[in-house]
């Protein structure tokens, strides 16, 4: 019964999206449409209905309604509540519904709030948004219906993939999805601007909060996902260059570039076509990533929906949307003025360089991700791994980081490198010093460069605050400084992990003591334990840091029984200067247990850095929204005064 | 708000079509792949040919390396090309263990790997190999006509390549491989 409400809401939302598209398109015609007035209310209603549909699915999972195929396939009555709810999006159909929901809600929000742009641009944007939504509605209704019923009703569900049963993962996919799909608004704005040819600072200011918000969610999502992979997979690594990870990284790279170019457009009215292009590319990368993951066309440890029919469906959508937008871009790009000019040694120049480098990295990741696919067409099966991504990506990353240190010190429009040379001496010296120390310590080249650049950049990123009264520094500047500082922090963490990690792999029996880095780890006991839907062998380790107090660690080798799967739950001891990472393996024939221990100095900085980056974005967004609000209030005041004077 | 721009008469810039063209190329490749569901059984040009001459150092301490001479002693073997940095290799580990349990002698060639990482990989995913050679420059890999990891070859008792399996060994491939190994032994 409840399921039928969800399905009905989905159908109605799809119908409204069609209406929204048609009314918007008619509104754009030369005569001006009579239906144009419908677009905003329809967009809001569409958002409400698709939101309802999603809530219904959440409720179905909550009450474990096994008459619904999706619930029966992905849930189980013995599952903790949080994972029942997380089960809503831990599967293909549910996550696609979440996708459509975020799109619908975003469209509704634009319809409700956006009053600054010319009505034609808003109409075009909402029509584009509806057109994209329509494809996903069709996909849901015809190829991935989340509300399909099951008759007879099974006695019990099949459970959720145990790897996904983790609090971090319960919120990781929705965070990423909000980021991916939030970029659809930037895409629709870009398409709208191409249709109406109205590109300028006002357009950039309207687009910017969406880009910023999506980018913040993507940053948090990627950071959380990386930490999840780090402690849940039990491999000690934090990034595997897996297609699914790349699928989230590529939109982030594009959004980062877009974020910077949209700022140039808002502040200086330059880089018009480039910004539009990035707007198209960013959401295209979201869709492409989703396609690659969902179609099962690439082998991935994450792949959970392998189905060629669905793959074909998403491919058609991709062709329609990305292909359509790129063709529209090609037709219109020459008719859009590139905007104001600037010299190389200027803030814009640095931002353009940063954009080109980010696009370069994006290209590297895209090629690395797609190469196995291309090779397969030629009849080969290959896997592209870290040796490629790390070394080739560095070619673009290193110059980008250097410019990242210098760029914020440059003035808009025209500046000279000689002017800022004196202030850049200190960060350069810091970087050089760090490099020398690492070289003496025998650190490999890439980690060495990482440590050096991280240290130098940490200093350089704070320079924009130099000589200013901190209280008068505007929020967006704080945002920039903190985000750039976050990059330095994360980079230092990555390099430190690569350069200084100590690892021990031992077969141990209770009573043994193992040394790893500055830690003495004593294997005390091992005992079976049981959870709600798993049983495990749990080791008790006593870890003593040199001179510190002892900590207890409990790594587990777990066996889930619905569905049957074994996982290794790692155990971590965190100090300010790093983490001890312990994994319990299998028991050998001699009765001893495999124990893997890592000491990873400063590894946590990777994720703290990621959070700082997101925090920077958040501050920038607050600052922008506040100044937008002030602008609106000021406008209202002027209008009010005029009105009074007029009377 | 800027007024709508006047169309610029620059004679058209062909570069603006580049993204659309690249994307069209991508679509073509993907559509081709989708319409030809992954053929994981590909006949290699090297099938029926003897193994090329090679001698690889041990990839991990405590386990012997691998040379062509080790392979022509009358015993059928499965030669698995893998790497600790390769995700599908981890995926196929249980299947290799299964093959080993079925009595197959599995030998490995580790591609561009490091001993510590390799050891970690074997500890984590199991070690089905009787010998592991280190191919640090992908030399043997190329001479075997293999372009990626993972890949597996059935080598008969005379050191002749009898079968090539491209990509990871999935559970459904195990019976097929066992049959090939049995045929190679006849």
Model description:
The complex is a heterodimer of chains A (647) and B (186). With 647 residues, chain A is of the alpha+beta class. Chain A has 4 domains: 1-165, no CATH class; 167-341, Up-down Bundle (Four Helix Bundle (Hemerythrin (Met), subunit A)), CATH 1.20.120; 423-501 and 603-647, no CATH class; 503-601, no CATH class. Chain A is built from 17 helices and 10 strands. In chain A, helix 5 (92-113) crosses helix 7 (167-196), helix 6 (119-143) runs antiparallel to helix 11 (308-333) and helix 7 packs across helix 10. The longest helix of chain A is centred in the C-terminal third of the chain and has 42 residues, at 605-646. Mean pLDDT of chain A is 86; it is low at 300-305. With 186 residues, chain B is α/β, with parallel strands linked by helices. Chain B has helices at residues 18-35, 87-101, 115-125, 139-143, 174-185; strands at residues 55-56, 66-67, 77-82, 105-111, 129-135, 151-155, 161-166. The longest helix of chain B is centred in the first third of the chain and has 18 residues, at 18-35. The N and C termini of chain B lie far apart (81 Å). Chains A and B meet through helix 8, helix 10, helix 11 and helix 12 of A and helix 1, helix 2 and helix 3 of B.
Structure class of chain B: alpha/beta
Gross geometry of chain A: globular
Q: How much of the polypeptide of chain B forms β-strand, as a percent range?
A: 15-25%
Number of strands of chain A: 10
Helical segment count of chain A: 17
Number of helices of chain B: 5
Structural class per helix/strand content of chain A? alpha+beta
Q: What is the average of the pLDDT values of chain B?
A: 80
Name the helicity range of chain B.
25-40%
Query: Rg of chain B, please?
Result: 22 Å
Residues in helix, % of chain A = 55-70%
CATH superfamily of chain B: Glutaredoxin
CATH class of chain B: Alpha Beta
CATH fold description of chain B: Glutaredoxin
Average pLDDT metric of chain A:
86
């Amino acid at each position: 019964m409840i399921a039928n409400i969800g399905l009905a809401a989905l159908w109605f939302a799809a119908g409204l999206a069609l209406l929204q598209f048609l009314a918007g398109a008619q509104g754009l015609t030369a005569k001006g449409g009579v239906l144009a007035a419908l677009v905003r209310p329809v967009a809001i209603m569409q958002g409400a209905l698709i939101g309802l549909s999603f809530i219904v699915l959440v409720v179905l999972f909550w009450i474990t309604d096994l008459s619904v195929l999706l619930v029966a396939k992905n849930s189980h009555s013995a599952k903790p509540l949080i994972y029942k709810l997380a089960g809503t999006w831990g599967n293909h159909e549910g996550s696609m519904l979440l996708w459509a929901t975020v799109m619908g809600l975003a469209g509704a929000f634009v319809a409700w709030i956006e009053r600054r742009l010319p009505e034609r641009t808003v109409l075009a944007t909402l029509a584009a948004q509806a057109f994209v939504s329509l494809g996903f509605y069709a996909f849901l209704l015809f190829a991935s219906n989340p509300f399909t019923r099951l008759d007879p009703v099974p006695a019990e569900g099949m459970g959720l993939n145990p790897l996904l049963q983790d609090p971090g993962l319960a919120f990781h996919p929705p965070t990423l999805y909000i980021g991916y799909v939030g970029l659809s608004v930037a895409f629709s704005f870009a398409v709208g601007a191409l249709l109406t040819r109205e590109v300028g600072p006002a357009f950039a200011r309207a687009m910017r909060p969406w880009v910023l918000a999506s980018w913040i969610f993507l940053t948090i999502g990627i950071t959380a996902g990386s930490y999840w992979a780090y402690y849940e997979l039990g491999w000690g690594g934090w990034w595997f260059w897996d297609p699914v990870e790349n699928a989230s990284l590529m939109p982030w790279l594009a959004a980062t570039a877009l974020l910077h170019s949209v700022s140039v457009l808002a502040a200086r009215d330059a880089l018009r076509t480039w910004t539009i292009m990035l707007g198209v590319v960013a959401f295209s990368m979201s869709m492409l990533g989703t396609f690659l993951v969902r179609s099962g066309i690439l082998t991935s440890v994450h792949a959970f929906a392998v189905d060629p029919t669905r793959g074909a469906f998403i491919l058609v959508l991709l062709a329609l949307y990305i292909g359509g937008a790129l063709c529209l871009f090609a037709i219109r790009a020459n008719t859009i003025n590139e905007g104001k000019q600037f010299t190389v040694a200027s803030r814009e120049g640095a931002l353009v360089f940063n954009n080109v480098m980010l696009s370069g990295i994006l290209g590297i990741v895209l090629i690395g991700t797609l190469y196995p696919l291309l090779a397969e067409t030629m009849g080969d099966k290959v896997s592209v791994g870290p040796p490629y991504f790390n070394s080739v990506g560095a070619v673009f990353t290193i110059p980008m980081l250097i410019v990242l240190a210098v760029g914020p010190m440059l003035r808009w429009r025209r500046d000279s490198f000689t002017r800022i040379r004196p202030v850049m001496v200190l960060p350069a010296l810091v970087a050089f010093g760090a490099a020398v120390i690492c070289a003496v310590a025998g650190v490999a080249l890439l980690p060495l460069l990482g440590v050096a650049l991280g240290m130098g950049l940490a200093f350089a990123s704070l320079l924009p605050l130099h000589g200013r009264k901190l209280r008068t520094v505007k929020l967006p500047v704080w945002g920039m400084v903190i985000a750039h500082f976050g990059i330095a922090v994360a980079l230092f963490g990555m390099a430190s992990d690569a350069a200084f990690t100590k690892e021990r792999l031992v077969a141990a029996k209770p009573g043994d003591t193992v040394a790893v880095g500055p830690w003495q780890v004593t294997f005390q006991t091992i005992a079976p334990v049981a959870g709600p839907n798993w049983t495990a062998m749990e080791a008790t380790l006593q870890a003593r840091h040199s001179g510190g107090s002892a900590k207890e660690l409990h790594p587990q080798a777990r066996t889930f029984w619905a569905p049957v799967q074994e996982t290794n739950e790692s155990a971590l001891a965190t100090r300010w200067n790093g983490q001890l990472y312990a994994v319990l393996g299998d028991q050998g024939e001699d009765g001893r247990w495999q124990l893997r221990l890592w000491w990873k100095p400063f590894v946590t900085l990777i994720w703290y850095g990621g959070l700082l980056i997101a925090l920077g974005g958040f501050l920038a967004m607050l600052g922008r929204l506040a100044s937008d609000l002030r602008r609106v209030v000021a406008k209202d005041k002027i209008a009010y005064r005029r009105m009074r004077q007029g009377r | 708000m800027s007024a709508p721009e006047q169309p610029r008469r620059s004679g058209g810039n062909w570069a603006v079509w580049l993204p659309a063209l690249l994307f069209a190329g991508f679509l073509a490749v993907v559509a081709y792949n989708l319409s030809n569901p992954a053929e994981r059984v590909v006949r290699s040009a090297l099938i029926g040919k003897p193994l090329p001459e090679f001698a690889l150092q041990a990839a991990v301490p405590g386990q012997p390396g691998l040379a062509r001479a080790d392979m022509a002693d009358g015993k059928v073997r499965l030669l698995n090309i893998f790497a600790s940095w390769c995700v599908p290799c981890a995926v196929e580990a249980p299947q290799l263990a299964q093959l080993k349990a079925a009595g197959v002698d599995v030998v490995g060639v580790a591609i561009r790997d490091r001993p510590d990482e390799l050891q970690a990989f074997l500890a984590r995913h199991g070690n089905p190999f009787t010998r592991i050679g280190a191919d640090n420059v992908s030399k043997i890999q190329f001479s075997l006509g293999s372009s990626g990891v993972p890949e597996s070859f059935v080598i008969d008792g005379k050191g002749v390549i009898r079968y090539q399996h491209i990509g990871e060994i999935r559970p459904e491939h195990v019976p097929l491989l066992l049959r090939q190994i049995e045929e190679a032994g006849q």
